Amino acid sequence: MTIAIVLGIVFIALVLFSLDTLPIEVSALTIVCLLALTRVLTPAQAFEGFSNDTVIFIFCLLAMTQGLASTGVVQLIGQRLSFFARYGHQVFVLAMMGAVAVFSSVISNTVTTAAFLPVAIGAAHRAKVPKSKVLMPLAYASMLGGMVFLYGTSTNLVMSAAMQKLGMKGIGVAELAPVGLPVAVLGILVVVLLGPLLLPAREGQGSDGGWALRDYLTEAVLPEGSAYQGKELGDISEGLGLRVIGILREGQAIAAVPSYRLEGDERLIIEGRREDILRVKDLRGIELRSDMKLGEGALDSRDTVLVEASVPAGSPLTGRSLKEALFAERFGLVALALHRKPAIQRLTKLQMLGRIFGQQSLSTMPLSVGDVLLLRGPRSRVAELADGTALLVLSDYEYQPPRYGKALLAVCFFLGALGAGSLGLLPLSVAGLAGMLGMIATGCVDARVAFRVDWRVVLLIGSMMALGVAMEQSGAGKFLGSRVAELGAYGGPRLVLTMLMLMTILLSAPMSNQAAALVVLPVAVSAAAQLGVDVRPFAIGVTLAASCSFITPLEPSCVLVYGPGHYRFTDFFRLGTPLTAVLVVFLVFAVPLVWPFEGALPTAAR
User: Fold this and answer.
1) What DSSP character marks residue 398?
2) Where are the membrane-spanning stretches (predicted)?
3) CA distances from 590 to 46, 47, 180, 380, 506 (A)
């Protein structure tokens, strides 16, 4: 009876997740509630997942990546990745997946996904690639890389220990590589080829913390003694991830070619998103050009904020320029950049380059209804715009310049926590918590920023752990595994291997990868004994199959990208199904080649 109840709850879970009518975290908590109400689990067991070492470690990792972002580390790596976007979307995704897979081969795939998540988002923004086209490949690359070496994923370690308990030899450090490496390469190629066709181009509303992803126009100059004087434009536009669309020198427009050598008396016309504009503002050696400046005391205030404001109908600013309206003096705010509707934006670029209507600057450009200004100034002056008469405040952002001086310290805390947790020097939760608190204590990141993590990730992973416990304790996992072994016994060892791998992949949806593999392993041992073949290819096949749960977003790496990528449950099914099918077919033929069925029988299988 209990098995039937658990399988019914699993079915309900899959229906709720696939319909996507409720937020995924609500659906996950509903499953926990059902497990407790039906008394399949005690309340303590149902909520035990939220205190799990892995869940706490993931939370701390997400908080530490905020520290890496606050110190500029994420931006630096993201700029290097976005370099590949010049060769096309697929080359960019290929480079990112390759880098992630390499890291994931020696570091936990969940840890790698958490570390690269903000990097991938920043690189996607600069490369003008939708996040939904990038983040799922990120998660898949981390899972594929984890199949190469023993330490790539905790599932490999757990299965190695379980195999030793059953009398088999544990998995060697590089034993999986002959199959795991080609699987990773094949999987990456499948995603790169099919991703553009099957992944949605979806950014979602408020995808950037409540900010629309608008392109702004601004002007910059090289101050006296700038380190960029005499250097090529490519050092700024490419090396710093900025998009320079034109150069004005002595009233003449110059093409923004990378080989152009800067002399210091030019005006650079820059187009980019919020991060690009803020990066210009914080760089030494390049400054935003503006006729509207506040006193340094006001700009250094801790209460300074960044806001986005549009010009409403009937505004006294309509038809007037910022300079003409004495904007800085009247409102006490600095206008950093301007966004206009696409057609008007193109016309504005031409005006600023002096090609039509003469050369103009942002400060002398007449404003129109619907224009959006990126403003910076004291919070008290922003509050004065509340009536919406002159400007309508759309959103605000508590701006903090990157703390570049703390970058090395942040990296040390991050790597130290990963190393201590991965090597077993400290429990995972303790290592993550120590790293996070270390970043906060040393000023790498503010506490309120560090805790701006996606709590849905924590709720979903904790909830699915409860379902995994129910599958294991009720015997539902073994029940399904035994049925598969019975069906496969009629077609020889290769068919049995196929069925065991498919069962592992199926069970890894409602259960954790480790739990699914551990449930199927005894079935694999029994099937090998009945067929009179070596159990090792079955055990290795189950281990590798546990890392092939691409069809649903319930694997921790996929959960991490689910919210930021604005995915739906079915998005993973569309790309994950062909990817899983290709890899299973490859594994079914590759595993017996490296670990033959006719090998010496281990003690446990005789």
Assistant:
1) -
2) 28-47, 54-78, 90-117, 138-159, 179-199, 407-426, 457-475, 487-508, 515-533, 539-563, 575-595
3) 39, 40, 10, 66, 21
Report the length, in residues, of the chain. Answer: 606
Span of 294-298, 411-415, 564-568 with lowest mean pLDDT? 294-298
Task: Please state, in angstroms and rounded to a whole number, the distance separating the CA atoms of residues 26 and 555.
Answer: 17
Say how far residue 565 (Cα) sits from the centre of its chain. Answer: 8
Return the SS3 of 549. coil
Residues contacting 271, CB < 8 A, separation 6+: 215, 216, 217, 243, 245, 349
CA 155 – CA 108 distance, rounded (Å): 10
CB 92 within 8 A of CB 85: yes
Which residue, among 115, 73, 74, 76, has the nearest Cα to 409 in the 3D structure? 73
DSSP structure string for 178-201:
HHHHHHHHHHHHHHHHHHHHHS--
Q: How far apart are CA 328 and CA 187, in angstroms?
A: 55
Tens digits of residue pLDDT in 124-149: 776 677 888 889 999 999 899 989 88
Q: What is the pLDDT of residues 403-458, one digit of tens each?
A: 777 888 888 888 888 788 767 788 878 888 898 898 888 888 877 767 766 666 66
- In tens, the pLDDT along 469-518 reads 777 677 776 676 566 666 656 667 888 899 889 888 887 776 667 767 77
Which residue, among 246, 233, 242, has the nearest Cα to 352 in the 3D structure? Answer: 246
Closest by alpha carbon to 97, among 185, 208, 27, 164? 185
* Residue labelled with tokens 């416990």: 469
In angstroms and rounded to an integer, the radius of gyration of the C-alpha atoms of the chain is 28
- State the angle between helix axes of 536-545 and 513-531 in degrees (0 to 180), rounded to the nearest 10: 160
169 vs 456: CA distance, rounded Å:
39
- Please determine, for residue 603, whether its predicted confidence score (pLDDT) is greater than 50: no
Q: Which amino acid is at 276?
A: D
What pLDDT band is residue 284 in, cutting at 50, 70 and 90? low
518 C-beta neighbours (distance < 10 Å), count: 22
Cβ count within 10 A of residue 594: 14
pLDDT at 299 over 50: no
- Give the pTM: 0.59
What span, in angstroms and rounded, lies between the C-alpha atoms of 263 and 250?
12
Residue type, 301: S
Q: Where are the beta strands (DSSP E) in 280-430?
A: 287-288, 304-310, 334-339, 372-378, 392-397
How much of the chain is in helix, strand and coil states, percent to nearest 5?
60, 10, 35
Judged against a pLDDT cut of 60, whether residue 325 lies above it is answered with yes
**pLDDT single digits (tens) 186-200:** 999 999 999 888 988
DSSP per-residue codes, 430-495: HHHHHHHHHHHHTTSS-HHHHT---HHHHHHHHHHHHHHHHHHHHTHHHHHHHHHHHHHGGGHHHH
CA angle at 74 for the pair 51 and 234, rounded to the nearest 5°: 170
The structure tokens listed for 257 are 């070619």
